[in-house]
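Reopening this one. Same input as before:
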Amino acid sequence: MRDKRFVAEHRGGPLKKEQHRQLMQWACVCARHILPLYGDKTDPLLEQALEIARKWQRGKATVGEARQAAFAAIAVARASINPVSVAVARAVGHAVATAHMADHALGPALYALKARQLAGQSIEAERNWQNAQLPTEIRELVMSARLAKEKAFKLLE
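Same output, byte for byte:
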């Protein structure tokens, strides 16, 4: 079930345009933070997707372009055989998909935690880092929504 707090004002929800942009920015920061875990050479489609996300934040890309970039990143995930690389690519896909649906912003954080867990690294350190990156205006929204999702991802330590 979709969390109605993530529905944009222009669609009848409470989420302001600036909050949506902040969610996109935070999602991209979370995805970019784990990009080095992808492997020796990052797939260029992942970098391109993050660039489209940055353009969308500045009003220079459409939601349709962001959706296509998200599909491309998810295709990279499907083609990957390394579980850590899959999680990284899914994080990027969800980051850029935030343009389409703001609640996708939780995906990069969750997949970043999953990537750290699969890589044998501390998910607590990653979670704390993510929390420190959250803008004040969206902190409560993200923190409350993420807790339930982490349980579903089996990420609680």
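So the earlier flakiness isn't reproducible anymore. For the record, The two ends are 25 Å apart (CA to CA).
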